[in-house]
Amino acid sequence: MTDHTHADTLRTPIVAVLGHVDHGKTSLLDTIRGSAVSEGEAGAITQHIGATDIPLDTISGMAGELIDPSDFDLPGLLFIDTPGHHSFSTLRARGGALADIAVLVVDVNDGFQPQTEEAIDILRRTGTPFVVAANKVDTTPGWNPQDGEPIQKSMDAQSERAKSMLDENLYEIIGQLSDAGFSADLYWRVQDFQKNIGVVPLSALTGEGVPDLLTVLMGLSQRFMKEEMAIDVTGPGEGTVLEVKDERGFGATVDTVVYDGVIRNGDTVVVGGQNEPIVTEIRALLRPRPLAEIRTEKEFEKVGEIGAAAGVKIAAPDLDEAMAGAPVRVVRDRTVDQVVEEVKAELAEIEVDTSENGVVVKADTLGSLEAMANALREAEVPILRAEVGDIAPRDIAVAETANQDEHKAILGFNVDLLKNAESDLENADVKLFKNEVIYQLVEDYERYVEEKQRAQQETVLDKVVRPARFRILPDHTFRQNDPAVVGVEVISGTLQNNRNVGFFEGNEFERVGDLSGIQKQGDDVDEARAGERVSIAIDGPTVGRGIEEGDTLWTEVPEKHAKILEQELKEEITADEREALQGYLETRRKRDPFWGK
């Protein structure tokens, strides 16, 4: 274990790498790791659980002339391997983000993508300082790779054409950062990293520009985080759970990043759990074996203690209910109750406001649960219940109790549907939404609700009497009565068959009869639209008595229907139907101002 006990005891800054799915996060980490291994002997770089520790002298070897190690008193950098997704970036340490600093990886040809926007949003919310790695510069047409070189050296070796194409892409990214509210520039032009975001062009494939990235990260940490890196070397350890994993021979274990103090084998720890904080005793602290010993059977070696900042696997009883993103606290010189209260308080900051009705939300970590809750709050979607973990039968049972159909839904971020819940879901009236991108998950749900509402409106619309105003044409009486058959022109609205029709006498509506047939060019039809001329059969009146050629008639719209049309379906009906409705309502309301209201 590296010795953190030297006088100034500054811990390693924790670096998270975020970005859109295929923009090269993993390959960038692999390159940094790989060049670190070839730089020092294999022992120089320690693999932690879920993290890679790169000491200062290895970094200065990789960065060459860009770094003078005597400028730094930080021990190096700890890169966290996000557990396969960026929700990690919302993992917390004492109410802030777990990572001290972040690298946002953007494909230089692809620019900002949905998850890039999301990562930026998280960085903004948590106030985490970050640099942008503009990856894949080597895919610029005509690029001449300079393996492992600093980027400016590499750019000098390019043709004018390749250089200007790359510049164009880089300025595109700088523009997108500016749209997101960050002023940014190529890192060597940035005077003040607290005000401006540095953009580092690089290639994870050829390693060019990687020395620059490490230099910028070291510089940022040294300059702005020295105070935060000062830790209590012997104090009780504190950390955050990355993942809960079952390990053969150990049962449920928690992969943890320790950011303060020391954790020792045998310590009593409190870990955030799905219901109550878990109090347990450490049986083993596990680290991957050094690369040199990878041939041995066991992949882990036991260590006696681990100090910040480091990644470690903790084996202890009763960890089944531990949650990704939850705090881990060593009890040591306090009472268990005090620490349990602290953990509860930290979890309470993440408590999601739930309401009497709403959707069920499941997410993989507390951080992503919190991000989901924020996104739903902005979209004004209420939450009935929000929890960390995979989707279980009881989630389906809870979702089914929602009192509005559109709330009978489960939104799962980065979680699976448990096998024993599959048939429950098939038999339940519950819709499941799953996605790896938070805002897409929310959008999918919103689209579903809109479609549901539209479908409801369409069924209502089918049943509602549509308004229509029409005129009996002169010289178009085909039959005087039983039924009267006349030619009409529809002035506005939709004339539907089997409706009562009449006219206004003063402001009184007089019903004259029932429309029992519509014929258009000799064929029976159900309706006629504005502008059409049709012949209609009306049961009741006689032409010459009751109705005359030249009369203007209306479809009688029942009061309840008029109200629905005006208040709920106004946007769904056509302009001429609105016009017919308006005319009908105005006349009706001259006599009774509250008619249809």
From TrEMBL:
Tr-type G domain segment(s): 10-226
GO molecular function, one term: translation initiation factor activity
Keyword Acyltransferase: no
Residues that, per the record, bind GTP: 19-26, 81-85, 135-138
Pfam families in alphabetical order: GTP_EFTU, GTP_EFTU_D2, GTP_EFTU_D4, IF-2
UniProt entry keywords in alphabetical sequence: GTP-binding, Initiation factor, Nucleotide-binding, Protein biosynthesis
Function field: Function in general translation initiation by promoting the binding of the formylmethionine-tRNA to ribosomes. Seems to function along with eIF-2.
Protein family membership: Belongs to the TRAFAC class translation factor GTPase superfamily. Classic translation factor GTPase family. IF-2 subfamily.
Entries under HAMAP family matching the protein: IF_2_A
Protein name listed in UniProt: Probable translation initiation factor IF-2
